[in-house]
Amino acid sequence: MYKISFFSDGFYAAGPVCNRTWDGWLCWDDTEAGFTSEQYCPDYFQDFDPSELVTKICSDNGHWFLHPESNRTWTNYTRCNEHTNEGRMTAMNLFYLALIGHGLSLTSLLISLGIFFYFKSLSCQRITLHKNLFFSFVLNSVITIIWLTAVANNQELVQRNPTSCKVSQFIHLYLFGCNYFWMLCEGIYLHTLIVVAVFAEKQHLMWYYLLGWGFPLIPASIHAIARSYYYNDNCWISSNTSLLYIIHGPICAALLVNLFFLLNIVRVLITKLKVTHQAESSLYMKAVRATLILVPLLGIQYVLLPYKPEGRVSSEIYDYIMHILMHYQVRLSTIICELVTLAHI
Q: Which residues span the membrane (predicted)?
């Protein structure tokens, strides 16, 4: 079709033009022959990336491009879900990465707990705290594996949105918090033992049980209430909500407090090494060294990488780093703890 066209340089010209058309998903304006029209992918499809472009070619003869196989007019939507397909592959890789990591962690944790319970010479308050910490890891790994396999990987269940899947997410976030607050208990114990109590032998563990098992119920409950009112998505599966700071905020605070305790412990020990017995100081230093190793391993992802970047590639790299740190750090920590414990036997 020939039509008078107005170009961006201000001149009018006559030539073949492809008529405006509706391809079923998008509307296309009149386009000059030999040009390719572009617009953003529609945002009403879940697997389409609205930041990518759709293209439609206007041939030199003034007709829209015909696909050679179907011999029908064709619009190129392939780029719309290209990155979405890549995202699916990334999600599957992260899924199996998490499953393997938690499986390996469970093995190491059970071995560590077996060592703690088998050797009666290891019965002391510090080992009791280790037992509770590792038991919280066991529970968290079990519920995470259940969550990943039964909920996150089950689209039918997510679509049905039963209450049970939200309850499992609540338990998952609660146990996630327990992990870090039991690490805080380890730091508080050593700080009280060395800095406050001046090498006192016994402490009341009830307060540690309340902090390690009880306190995480508060942010988990607040998150559940806030989620049900302000971001009540199916199974609470989405991580694209600032409400998760209700969970992550106390965890970051616990890590910072723990870091302060441990730095203060090291400072006090250094000043007391000259006036205390070497054997006693050496024993405490070994305990501090073990905990100093554990804390950065268990909290490094939140301290170094608190915010997820916006870019697609950088976001994908961030996800891989976070999953490796989150799901494999427990195994590494238990191996270190086993070595330190066996050295004391």
A: 94-119, 131-152, 180-200, 207-230, 242-266, 287-305
